[in-house]
Structure formats: C-alpha cells, structure tokens
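User: Hey, my collaborator sent me this sequence without any context and asked if I could get a structure. I don't really work with proteins. Can you help?
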Amino acid sequence: MIKLTYFTPAYNAEKTLPNLYQTLCNQTIKDFVWLVVDDGSVDNTSALVREYIEHADFSIVLFQQENGGKHRAYNKAIKECKTELLCCVDADFVLVENATEKILNEWKNYAERTEVAGIVTPIWCKNSMTDLNQTKEYIGFSAKTPDIGRMPELYSKYGYHGETLYPFRTTVLKEYMFPDIPNEKFMTESTIYLPISTQYKVHWMNQCLAQSTYMEGGLSDRRFYNQANSPLSTMLFYKLSAQCHPSLITRTMNCGCYYAWKKVFKLSETADFRKYSLPFFERILGGILVPHYIRLFQNNIKKYLK
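Assistant: No problem. I've predicted the 3D structure and written it out in structure-token form, which is a compact way to encode the shape of the chain:
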C-alpha cells in the first residue's frame, strides 16, 4: 500500500516543474503519489502535468483551483490526500534519487510512536537569500540536535537557519487546517506547524533529501510584500508564535510584533484570533518592544502595500 504523497502547490510553474518531475521519475522506488494543485496558473502548468500523467510510471493527481495562495492549495492537498504521509515539495525543488526510499525506511521506526507527527530533514538551498556568496556548501543540523523534539526548537534551540522538508502524518495535518481569511493570499506554514508543535514532536533526520532554488518573484523573494498585503494572516502568525513558540524570547518578541502590526495596520481580531490568548508575562515584556516594531513596520513594510 502506498504510504507517501508528495504535494506540489503550483502557480505558473511550467519552467520549474520539469526538473522536479525528472527527479520523481528517477526515484529508486515509486511507492508514492504526486499530487499537484494548480493554484490558478495562467501558463501551461496544468497541460504539462496532464502530459506527465500520460507517461509517468507512478501515480499523479491534478487539481485546479482559482488563485488563492499556497495555504489554500495546501488545504486542498490535505483534504484529498489518501496516504499516511504528506510531504510538500515546492515546484522549484529537486529530490535526491533515494529520497522516497529513505523517508519510508526512516518512518518505519516512528510510525507507531503517536507523539511523533512526522520527519524533518534539511534542504540545501541554491542561491539562498542568506548565502550572499552563493557557496555550494551544504549545512545540515548541528551535532547537538536530538533524535526528536518540538519543531520550532530546531531554529531557536539548535541553531539551524535553513529550509526543511517535512513528511507529516496526514491525520495530524487534517486536525490543523489553515484558516481561510477572505481576500488574503499569503499565510506562512508556521500557522499550522506552531500549533502542531504544542501537541506533537518530530523526528529530525539529518540527511539532505532535496534542493531548493530561490526564484525571483517567488514567495521567499516577495515575503515582505506578501505579509503587508495579507495583514490579518501575518497578525495571526505573530499571535500564534507569541502563544505557541517554546522560546520565551521568541514569544516576547512576537507579542511586541503582534501589537505593533495591529496598530500600524489598524486591524481588528476575527474569530480565528480569539481562540488564542497571549501569555501575561510575555504581554508585559512585549509591550516594551511595541514602539520599536512600529517604527520597523512603518519604515520597511508599508512600502510594499498595493
């Protein structure tokens, strides 16, 4: 029985999908489904995937929807996924040839551990925005990273700064769907992974199984623009991080960001916000930081508004 689905959110991805498709064709085992959600592309993305369906020796499923952002495509994939594991592979990813084999073999050691929601592996990022010299050195998890832990601790406690690949239990993801905030098309994936981390742990597998390339005009490249034009979604992330993050410093900083963002953009909370509460101590400390973040947002964020 197939246990793994690779999910690709695709928006005008006809130039990058062939590389990903080729690495899927090259997998040492084909025990997976490739689920593509075309998020309102205006190029030949869907036609290309239909061509792949005709020729591939593995299962491919295509869904099309109006452009709504990656988080809505992710929700569609979660709803439609029929396998035990769901792994998001962006259209600009390429996988190593034995990625599927390694994921499934590793998962055998954790499938019965109900406290483990999934696997997290490092990604080598080509032309990384944080790698100004564009070196090709691969940096994995530090030696002090344990076998399992809370997902945000990888960054706040164990010093990792890169991208990750994360095959997760589909049943867990179905518990934590992205909220649908009207008229906003950007929502960081931490919006679901932070709440998940309060209830579940992950297995950190220190093997690079994928490479990502930052594309001009992609989500990473347009991060500030996307945040400014999805202000409620960004404010929700700050509130979730202020409540759910395991680091006191991070919770405090995000409390300050939450109040500052709310004031700068003159926002009011909706029902999606009210189920989360800000810790008292962090509210006090975060309040001290509010003027600083207001200046930061006014200087660096509002210029990205439409």
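In plain terms: The radius of gyration is 19 Å. You can pass these tokens on to your collaborator as they are.
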